[in-house]
Design goal:
The complex is a heterodimer of chains A (480) and B (491). With 480 residues, chain A is α+β, with helices and mostly antiparallel strands. Chain A is 40% helix and 19% strand. In chain A, helix 3 links the parallel strand 13 and strand 14. Chain B has a single domain, classed as Amidase signature (AS) domain (Amidase signature (AS) enzymes). Chain B contains 16 helices and eleven strands. In chain B, strands 1-3-2-4-6-5-10-11-9-7-8 form an eleven-stranded mixed β-sheet, with helices on both faces. In chain B, helix 4 links the parallel strand 2 and strand 3. The chains are: A alpha+beta (480), B alpha/beta (491). Chains A and B meet through loops of A and helix 9, helix 10 and helix 12 of B.
């Protein structure tokens, strides 16, 4: 997709996935459940890197890395090494980060790989350079914006958490595509069960952005999927304006300032950091043998693509529905759990993709963060099917159900029920006809069927959506 | 009868078991000696006086109640080098930058010592971050050699070496990155072993050069070293580089030297070797022959590259290891009135590190930087492999290698400290062993004309500590050097 002005942007992403589904951190036995804990309390001598301490590799982290590597069709290496990436920064207790490297004799755990996804209607495939393991640094906090804060706070609770970094080739062509790519990657990670991506900072990005023929800019510190699109759009706009104004793009590293919604220059090529990578002498090479690979293949859960195909086949719903549902593992799980107890698969997907998703988007929450249960949704659908409530009434129940209410209770509480009293509806229909002479005239001309539906809607309005729509139509037709 | 402090650790342990002395008497004796001798030699940085006495009382009770099997080091005082982490006791690496840092955890060797019943009596002086061969570069000031207080005790574990020579304690721990156990052992006339890389856990040893160093005993005799090594050696899950090989009964030594094949690497007897040192080592080799060993000359041609190889690897690793000392979390912090953390880091490190440490950090940083990495670090790793191969080849032909530990005897304080290159040359015979990763014991084999001790290295194959120590025990049984105490420690 070329930009309208003929300028083609090229985007590469470095996606950090925090393995918070591990029980412990990467080098020590501290719990990985640090979220929400008092700052600087989830620590031990090892993850604080006190003088003399040594890292010991969490074997399960290697297994998780293998799972992701295989899921992305990458080449999991037989032997992999850890390297030190040296630089001074207060969020790092050692002033080096234990990571992996693909140069200077280094071998990351997984080389290559690809991910197929759909961006709008287009099927796309993006390739990976590598997936590597590394430790998470601590977290810096500021008073407001990073550029204006007079102080920086350090919280080391996150220090030493296991990260996987998936590095793509520069193959993404728009922020929308980047978002779609991340959505798919996210679904895969969720299905693998290696990370809870609902937790803050569990999926972070650095992005490389350039226009063809111009220098490349790295944008760091994009803290979530939602921020990626914004950061990319800002940076593209900045570069485009500069190029159009005859300026030159400087090869540099910039920082995404979430608060001010701008990218800020951190350093240019001239002052580019030299990380002085060298093999970590405190850790031994990690051998990945056939046994480990076989175990990972055996443990490999159903991934989104396979699940979409199965859902289409098993529930006979359109592929589009299945793929939207499988964007989120929690949503797909919810769907299947509901279908199990309410046997109208298309009805369930319609509601989940329609009113439920709309509500979730409005509240900026994921389905697993709400109290909605498959049981509640199934009950609501049953109430519609047996004629107790109308679809319109049901729509009004969704909000309460997200807070944990059962639809039957809501119906009782608010006395909302389908009105099928023909006499009452007849009276209301007559009122509507009198109130809308112009529309009635149009209906009688018979040119536009939607004018009739307008009248049905007016009756609905008078009953707060409780009128039986079929009965109302019959009555209106008769009266006209 | 010998005075209490004139006994080896092995003999003291026997006496404790037999009830001929008590842990309290032992502790009190050494604490008293420390009080008397420290003003002369300054081997120690911290004396754990009250706690150690209390521990001795507890050990005395435990010893009384113990039937049959007792803890192997119950009631034995031990000196621990300043770079080995001890809960609640300063661990400063004798650097200004770690002033005020009190570790909340024990090194694995310390845990094992405590479980064995040993009692930390003191921490010992060292060259800052173990970078040196003289113990002159300590933020607490230099340690003096008990044999001649105008001379250095060697380094970097000079405090442990001097403390043992002066009999301020019966046992000590040092660490050896490029000779830091063997050099002070040789200069102070005591025994010390750097074991096979991976034999002793490094967890809790403040890293100077991780891929080279080992914690190890510095003791009166090789037999004492063997006994101490049995306690501290073995696989540790907290150190991924420690190796899961069974720990032998080192203190049993070997039956005899009969039939032992001894290699004499000719490169150890080259230029710069002091005549007295050469003579003493040759005499010791003759003794070995008398005891039934056969000798043959061997060659380690690549060890001429050992010194630059060692310093490159050590400095590169050190430049990264020492990055964590930035004033933010513990130790010295020099605040700057204006400026960000970068300014604070710089100022703290500038004031906190001594000149030699700064030199090695800067050289290591340079050698690792883009464009130089292949030329220096990668090349050094290749040279290291070649040196290791030389040792493997030689040790395929013979059981052990012997040679002088140091080319000279202890030099006078202040004569080399301002000339780093001369100081680096001190390590020429010790660093090859760290590069190869094999075990090496230094045992005293004599003294020069001035009465300064001379050490001989016994080097063996990977994990052949028992053989190396056995040779040392056989030698000391005939040489009896440990019966001689420095004049100031005698009375």
């Amino acid at each position: 997709m070329a930009a309208d002005d003929g300028m083609q942007v090229i985007i590469g992403l470095e996606v950090h996935i925090q393995l918070n589904k591990l029980r412990t951190k990467l080098w020590c036995s501290c719990t990985s459940a640090y979220h929400g804990k008092e700052p600087n309390t989830v620590l031990c001598p090892v993850c604080l890197a006190l003088p003399g301490t040594l890292p010991v590799l969490n074997k399960r982290a290697v297994e998780f890395a293998i799972l992701l590597g295989l899921a992305l069709k990458g080449d999991v290496q037989k032997e992999t090494f850890f390297y030190r990436k040296n630089y001074y920064y207060p969020d790092m207790c050692k002033n080096f980060q234990i990571s992996q490297y693909d140069k200077a004799g280094g071998v990351p755990i997984c080389v290559g790989g690809e991910l197929a996804f759909r961006a709008g209607k287009e099927a796309r495939t993006v390739h990976f350079m590598r997936v590597h393991m590394e430790e998470d640094p601590g977290r810096l906090a500021y008073d407001g914006s990073i550029t204006t804060s007079p102080v920086a706070y350090v919280d080391y609770n996150r220090h030493g958490m296991a990260l996987l970094e998936a590095v793509t080739e520069p193959e993404l062509r728009s922020p929308e595509e980047a978002r779609a790519f991340l959505k798919k990657l996210r679904a895969i990670v969720e299905h693998l069960g290696i990370a809870d991506l609902g937790l803050e900072g569990s999926m972070r990005c650095d992005a490389n952005i350039s226009y063809k023929g111009h220098a490349r800019v790295e944008v760091k510190n994009i803290s979530s999927m939602k921020e990626v699109e914004k950061a990319l759009m800002f940076e593209m706009m900045r570069q485009k304006q500069k190029i159009k104004g005859g300026g030159e793009i400087v090869q540099e590293t910039r920082h995404w300032d979430e608060v001010r919604r701008v990218t800020v220059s951190l350093r240019t090529k001239e002052t580019e950091k030299d990380y002085r990578y060298f093999p970590e002498p405190d850790l031994v090479p990690v051998a990945i043998d056939k046994k480990m690979l076989d175990a990972a293949r055996k443990a490999m859960p159903e991934l989104p693509d396979a699940r979409i195909q199965r859902i289409v086949k098993q529930y006979q719903i359109p592929e589009y529905d299945a793929s939207v549902l499988c964007d989120s593992k929690a949503m797909a799980d919810f769907y299947e759990a509901t279908v199990k107890i309410f046997d109208d698969p298309k009805d369930v997907s319609n509601w989940l993709m329609g009113d439920v998703s709309r509500r979730l988007n409005e509240d900026l929450v994921e389905i697993e963060e709400t109290k909605l249960t498959p049981k509640a949704l199934a009950q609501m659908l049953r109430l519609i099917k047996d004629g107790t409530i109308t679809g319109k009434i049901a729509k009004g129940l969704v909000k309460g159900m997200l807070s944990g209410a059962m639809p039957a209770d809501l119906v009782k509480e608010h006395a909302v029920k389908r009105i099928d009293d023909a006499a009452l509806l007849g009276n209301l229909a007559r009122e509507v006809i009198v109130e809308n002479p112009k529309v009635v005239a149009e209906v009688k001309e018979g040119k536009n069927p939607r004018t009739f539906e307008f009248l049905v809607g007016q009756v609905m309005k008078k009953t707060k959506g409780q009128a039986d729509p079929e009965l109302t139509r019959e009555i209106l037709k008769e009266l006209l | 009868m010998a005075k209490l402090h004139e006994n080896t650790a092995t003999e003291l342990l026997r006496m404790l078991s037999a009830g001929e002395t008590t842990p309290v008497e032992v502790m009190a004796t050494y604490l008293e000696r420390i009080g008397k001798l420290e003003p002369k030699i300054h081997a120690l940085t911290f004396v754990n006086k009250d706690a150690a006495l209390k521990e001795a009382e507890r050990a005395a009770k435990e010893l009384k109640g113990a039937k049959g099997k007792k803890k192997p080091l119950l009631g034995m005082p031990i000196v621990v080098k300043e770079c080995i982490s001890t809960t609640g006791i300063q661990t400063t690496c004798c650097s200004k930058i770690l002033q005020g840092y009190i570790p909340p955890y024990d090194a694995t060797v310390v845990t094992r010592l405590k479980q064995a019943g040993a009692i930390i009596i003191a921490k010992s002086n060292m060259d800052e971050f173990a970078m040196g061969s003289s113990t002159e570069r300590s933020c607490y000031g230099p340690t003096m050699n008990p044999w001649d207080v105008n001379r250095v005790p060697g380094g970097s574990s000079g405090g442990s070496g001097a403390a043992i020579a002066a009999r301020e304690a019966p046992l000590a721990l040092g660490s050896d990155t490029g000779g830091s156990i063997r050099c002070p052992a040789a200069y102070c006339g005591v025994a010390g072993i750097k074991s096979t890389y991976g034999r002793v856990s490094r967890y809790g040893l403040v890293a100077y050069a991780n891929s080279l160093e080992q914690i190890g005993p510095i003791t009166i005799t090789a037999r004492d070293s063997a006994m101490l090594l049995e306690v501290i050696a073995g696989k540790d899950i907290a150190d991924s580089t420690s190796v899961d090989v069974p720990v032998d009964k080192y203190s049993q030594g070997i039956a005899s030297l009969e039939g032992l094949k001894v290699g004499i690497p000719k490169e150890f007897f080259g230029e710069g070797l002091k005549a007295d040192v050469k003579a003493s080592v040759e005499k010791a080799v003759d003794k070995m022959k008398e005891l039934g060993a056969t000798t043959q000359e061997v060659s380690l041609p690549s060890i001429k590259y050992a010194l630059p190889t060692y310093y490159l690897i050590a400095m590169c690793e050190a430049s990264s290891n020492l990055a964590r000392f930035d004033g933010l979390r513990y130790g010295l912090r020099v605040d700057v009135p204006k400026g960000n953390y970068d300014a604070m880091f710089s100022k703290t490190r500038q004031e906190g590190f001594g000149p030699e440490v700064r030199r090695r950090i800067i050289l290591g940083t340079y050698a690792l930087s883009a464009g130089y990495y292949d030329m220096f670090y990668v090349k050094a790793l290749k040279a290291r492999t070649i040196i290791q191969d030389d040792f493997k080849k030689a040790l395929a032909k013979v059981d052990v290698l012997v040679g002088p530990t140091m080319p000279t005897t202890a030099f006078e304080i202040g004569t080399k400290v301002d000339d780093p290159l001369t100081m680096y040359l001190e390590d020429i015979l010790t660093v090859p062993i760290n590069l190869a990763g094999v075990p090496s014991l230094s045992v005293p084999v004599g003294a020069d004309k001035a009465g300064m001790p001379i050490g001989m290295q016994v080097m063996g194959n990977f994990f052949k500590e028992q053989q190396v120590l056995g040779v040392g025990m056989a030698l000391e049984d005939v040489l009896q050097f440990h019966k001689k105490l420095p004049p100031l420690a005698g009375a």
